[in-house]
Amino acid sequence: MTRSLTRTTLISALALGMVPTAQADDETLHLGVPAWPGITVKTEIAEQLLSPLGYETTIQELGLQVIYQGLDSGDLDIFLGGWMPAQKDMFTPREEAGAIVSLANNVDGAQMTLAVPDYVHDQGITSFADLDENRDMFEGQIHGFGSGSAASEILNEAIEEDAWGLNDWELVDTSEVGMLSAARDAMSRDEPILWVGWTPHWMNLEFSMNYLEDPKDLFGENNGESDVLTIARSGYADAHPNVVTFFEQFVFDHEEQSWMIKEFGQEERDAETVAADWIRDNSERVETMLDGVTTQDGDPAWPIIREQFDL
Predict the structure, then answer these.
(1) Is 306 in a helix, a strand, or coil?
(2) pTM of the model
(3) Comparing C-alpha atoms, which of 47, 41, 48, 58 is closest to residue 7?
(4) Closest of 33, 59, 62, 37 to residue 48, by C-alpha
(5) Strand partners, 102
(6) What is the torsion angle, in degrees rounded to the nearest 10, for the CA atoms of residue 273, residue 274, residue 275 and residue 280?
(7) What would the pLDDT profile of 134-164 be if each residue is shown by its tens digit?
């Protein structure tokens, strides 16, 4: 009933084949976490609920590609951040090979597409179709959060193919912090700006913003609608049906995860505290997550958690 948090660069070396790896054992649940606030808090919630049930866990903070390689090799068991369709090139081959399995979409209402401030949306710029005729308003710039990201690839392809008349637009790729700083700065002066937005994220709580409609679905079907998959190593899932039941029911809406991201990423509160606060403030949801779940000894999980957190 212990948890250890490992932040290491050694796994990067493992992924490159520089040192031998040891397959994760079936007694300890190994969770991979990228440096993303929402996934960090969500994984902490899972650990705080599973630990009192008798499950020993480790949480390893790793890069996204390394996490997929760890699931493939057996060094990791669970990953709560399988954003689709953005990660499909990493996910699909491993799923088809039988190395990994999706247990659930753990965020309801996730989306990624272009966004504008409310006051720009109110001027009638509500769709990708409105961009070309208003190019000068935005100085022909789309602000992105990093070269090599899925969003960057989508937008560069759209510019190359002149989708929605974007061939003479420029993608300003900086970083997530740089992009959102530019958005905040422009909105402080009521100036137009166009950037890559997504939910769940704290921007949806702090910015007065709207997502543009895109009938061509450049960012995916239903205007960039996304799934955030709970991905399990197949061998671990087969050996632990009780844990699978838990993760099949471990689901949040995008506003809840946006709150987690804001509290941990923006307010800089401790992840363990944010997770514990969510558990104590959402006892009915926790009880639903634990429906049919037991301790390692076979006792019902909910009474244990209710006592643990004084719910």
Answers:
(1) helix
(2) 0.81
(3) 58
(4) 59
(5) 231
(6) 90
(7) 999 999 999 999 887 778 989 999 999 999 9
The CATH number of domain 111-224, selected from 3.40.190.100, 3.30.470.20, 1.10.10.10, 3.40.630.30: 3.40.190.100
pLDDT (tens digit per residue) in 129-141:
999 999 999 999 9
- DSSP H or E run through 190: none
- Name the fold adopted by 3-107+227-308: D-Maltodextrin-Binding Protein; domain 2 (3.40.190)
Residue 74: enclosing H or E segment and its boundaries? none
Q: 43-46 — which CB contacts under 8 Å span 24+ positions? A: 43/80, 44/271, 44/272, 44/274, 44/275, 45/275, 45/278, 45/279, 46/78, 46/80, 46/246, 46/247, 46/250
- 177 burial class (0-12, 13-18, 19+ CB within 10 angstroms)? exposed
Strand 56-61 versus strand 227-233 pairing type: unpaired
Tokens encoding 41 = 């808090």
